[in-house]
UniProtKB/TrEMBL annotation:
<feature type="domain" description="HTH cro/C1-type">
    <location>
        <begin position="7"/>
        <end position="61"/>
    </location>
</feature>
<dbReference type="InterPro" id="IPR010982">
    <property type="entry name" value="Lambda_DNA-bd_dom_sf"/>
</dbReference>
<dbReference type="Pfam" id="PF01381">
    <property type="entry name" value="HTH_3"/>
</dbReference>
<dbReference type="InterPro" id="IPR001387">
    <property type="entry name" value="Cro/C1-type_HTH"/>
</dbReference>
<dbReference type="GO" id="GO:0003677">
    <property type="term" value="F:DNA binding"/>
</dbReference>
<protein>
    <recommendedName>
        <fullName>HTH cro/C1-type domain-containing protein</fullName>
    </recommendedName>
</protein>
Length: 196
């Protein structure tokens, strides 16, 4: 649920008119109306005032409003760079625009890796390949960490398939992969029938 809807619902629950809420927050009643109608996104200061007065969790303010703003801003930046063929080296962009120092080493590693992945996905021109890559990423992200030992095998498996494609051709590599999957599925079906 977006922030505008939450404000509207909470104001109605509290039985506050626009004018009364304006008096309590110091935000003009017309601006509150525009926020509820989605015409304006409130400044962080005004969002906090509304959240405090209407008993809205501040975390919800950040997640529902500012996360969306940041996402939209990043997409706008990517689109503008793409439209005008602007290439900003990653390290220059980070140093000049993002306060990364407080993140700590582990979060920096994660941040850097996330950007590498996003960049490679953004540059993928083959729609089928992009869909497949996204499906793999989503599957790994969705599944519990108990599969971590299996994840370690994924990259060598893909590298082996790529090598096989280069040496024997894609049809042969596909045939080998299909045969491997069929073997595993057959073992799954036969499991419990005495075949282990």
């Amino acid at each position: 649920m977006n922030f505008a809807t939450v404000v509207k619902e909470k104001r109605a629950e509290a039985n506050l008119s626009y004018r009364k809420l304006s008096e309590e927050t110091g935000i003009s009643h017309s601006h509150i109306r525009d926020i509820e109608n989605g015409k304006h996104t409130p400044s962080f200061e005004n969002a906090i005032k509304l959240a405090s007065t209407l008993d809205i969790n501040v975390r919800d303010v950040v997640v529902s409003t500012y996360q969306t703003q940041l996402r939209n801003l990043l997409f706008e930046l990517i689109k503008t760079c793409d439209d005008y063929n602007v290439s900003i080296p990653y390290d220059v962009w980070v140093k000049s625009n993002l306060p990364m120092d407080p993140m700590g080493t582990e979060k920096m590693k994660l941040h850097d890796k996330a950007f590498e992945i996003v960049e490679s996905l953004y540059n993928e021109k083959n729609e089928n390949a992009l869909t497949s890559k996204l499906e793999v990423i989503e599957w790994i992200a969705r599944n519990p960490t108990t599969y971590s030992s299996i994840y370690k095998s994924v990259i060598p498996f893909i590298e082996t398939v790529e090598d096989t494609s280069g040496i024997h051709g894609l049809p042969k590599a596909q045939s080998e992969v299909d045969q491997f999957i069929d073997t595993l599925q057959e073992k799954n079906v036969n499991y419990g029938k005495g075949d282990e």
